[in-house]
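quick q for whoever's on today - can somebody do inverse folding on this one?? i tried earlier but teh output was garbage lol. tokens:
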């Protein structure tokens, strides 16, 4: 007997499962508000060099002072990182005659002046993370994803060792603590450290929420559960745009996106531990209690009986499962090394790691580039969130029709092709480029939606959280590198897009090497995989 047989007897998708899924969707909403916060936290408004006051400027307007103090680009805009070493008063007579002598041009010497019409303050304006310091600004996102990467390893192991619910609660509490410390940062170093630790904490939420819900749902509703959880990510995406629009000061913006974690902590008390994990770890009585609760809520009165009466059928079934699964593995200890010990599991781990890297690398590469629509940054973020919802709905149909493997491979390959197409399409074709960008974002989200569902079905119960931890580790490496790739535009303007395109196509092709899991029972032990 398999655990799925028990779920069918007590109700594999009833009121009990619906309640759990919706509670677990609350922290899911909060994730993109932190993962994509860099778009607003580190936004760089238009700026120019600060010009110290001189007696010669007394009768000049501010526009005239800028005209004689800052060189201009070919389109007439002032250069953000350079100034004249001496005022060029001749430009007052003919501003079109820009000096050709580069020796009189120097980097900003007295700081910068920022346009505060869109942002009251960001970390860019707080600590002048522009021009030569631009790399530190992009590195803020990298530090966060490095934290997420470390957290994937830590919480993947801990949740398999100490349980899903306990580690989810720990990660939410730590997210609140470090999120508030980030908001109180008084230096760039403090912000970098606290954002890294926030990433570690939030990684636990990202890693545990989906498997905890999936382990209570029957086979027929696993896809629906995965898509539902993913839709709430998109809702969080849109809410981020609205919150950022209302809160323009970066300290309070961090407080605003961290606060909802408190609600998740309160609601989590109604979520039970995974009965599947309890059985696999020999805690049969606790699993029995949770399964009885599930049966009562789902109206399966035949199983909602007192444990003091004659041994109910559900307890016998639990013992059968325990004898088959737990007793065979009780003396074994599983770790990340176990993912690579046997040949089939080794192939799955290597290929799924490559796919996760490509999915995260291309997704965050697109999500952190909000200038492709010609819209303001808030509307672009909102549109990106809306685009994701139809992509998820379509994937709900596709993964059950054409299978997980084909869906995973082609959505990621098409993401790369859309990114590459915009490198070729001329800049003047604005509408066409926008349509291709929208399609690329949709494919990117479809690939991300599929990979969460697909990976949780590839690994056995005894190693599922280790497997999710490992793949999340690789994915966060992709997420950490994605913001830094934007710095390659100094080498060649299109190099970032070419890089995203190449990685997405190559990693999408690797997905063809993975096994299909459509309508296949979740494997319980390693022997089920091999």
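ok took a stab at it. sequence:
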């Amino acid at each position: 007997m398999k655990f799925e047989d028990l779920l069918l007897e007590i109700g594999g998708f009833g009121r009990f499962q619906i309640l759990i899924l919706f509670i677990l969707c609350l922290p899911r909403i909060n994730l993109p508000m932190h993962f994509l916060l860099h778009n607003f936290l580190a936004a760089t408004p238009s700026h120019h060099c600060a010009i110290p006051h001189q007696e010669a400027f007394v009768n000049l307007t501010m526009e005239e002072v800028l005209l004689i103090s800052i060189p201009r680009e070919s389109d007439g805009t002032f250069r953000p990182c350079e100034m004249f070493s001496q005022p060029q008063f001749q430009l007052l007579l003919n501003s079109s005659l820009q000096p050709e002598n580069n020796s009189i041009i120097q980097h900003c010497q007295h700081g910068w002046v920022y346009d505060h019409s869109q942002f009251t303050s960001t970390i860019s304006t707080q600590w002048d993370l522009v021009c030569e310091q631009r790399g530190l600004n992009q590195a803020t996102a990298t530090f966060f994803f490095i934290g997420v990467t470390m957290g994937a390893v830590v919480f993947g192991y801990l949740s398999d060792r100490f349980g899903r619910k306990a580690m989810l609660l720990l990660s939410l509490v730590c997210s609140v603590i470090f999120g508030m410390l980030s908001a109180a940062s008084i230096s760039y170093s403090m912000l970098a450290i606290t954002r890294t630790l926030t990433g570690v904490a939030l990684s636990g939420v990202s890693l545990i929420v989906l498997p905890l819900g999936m382990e209570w749902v029957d086979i027929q509703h696993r896809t629906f559960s995965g898509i539902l959880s993913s839709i709430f990510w998109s809702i969080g995406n849109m809410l981020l745009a609205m919150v950022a629009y209302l809160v323009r000061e970066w300290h309070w913006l961090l407080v605003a996106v961290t606060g909802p974690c408190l609600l998740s902590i309160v609601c989590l008390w109604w979520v039970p531990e995974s009965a599947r994990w309890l059985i696999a770890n020999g805690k049969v009585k606790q699993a029995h209690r949770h399964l009885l609760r599930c049966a009562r809520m789902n109206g399966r009165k035949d199983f909602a009986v007192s444990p003091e009466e004659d041994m109910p059928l559900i307890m016998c079934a639990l013992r059968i499962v325990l004898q088959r699964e737990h007793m065979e593995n009780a003396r074994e200890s599983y770790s990340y090394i176990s993912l690579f010990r046997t040949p089939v599991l080794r192939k799955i781990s290597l290929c799924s790691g490559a796919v996760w890297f490509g999915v995260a690398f291309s997704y965050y590469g697109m999500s952190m580039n909000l200038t492709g629509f010609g819209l303001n940054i808030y509307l672009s973020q909102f549109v990106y969130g809306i685009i994701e919802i139809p992509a998820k709905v379509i994937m709900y149909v596709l993964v059950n029709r054409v299978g997980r493997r084909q869906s995973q491979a082609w959505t990621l390959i098409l993401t790369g092709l859309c990114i590459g197409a915009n490198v070729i399409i001329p800049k003047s074709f604005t509408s066409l480029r926008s349509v291709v960008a929208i399609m690329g974002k949709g494919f990117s989200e479809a690939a991300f939606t599929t990979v969460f569902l697909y990976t949780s079905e590839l690994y056995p119960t005894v190693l599922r959280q280790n497997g999710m931890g490992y793949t999340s580790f690789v994915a966060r490496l992709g997420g950490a590198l994605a913001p830094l790739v934007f710095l390659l535009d100094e080498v060649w303007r299109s190099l970032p897009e070419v890089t995203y395109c190449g990685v997405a196509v190559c990693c999408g092709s690797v997905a063809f090497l993975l096994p299909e899991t459509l309508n296949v029972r979740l494997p319980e032990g390693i022997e089920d995989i091999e």
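fwiw The chain has three domains: 1-31+125-331, 47-114, 339-529. also The two ends are 19 Å apart (CA to CA). so keep that in mind when u check it
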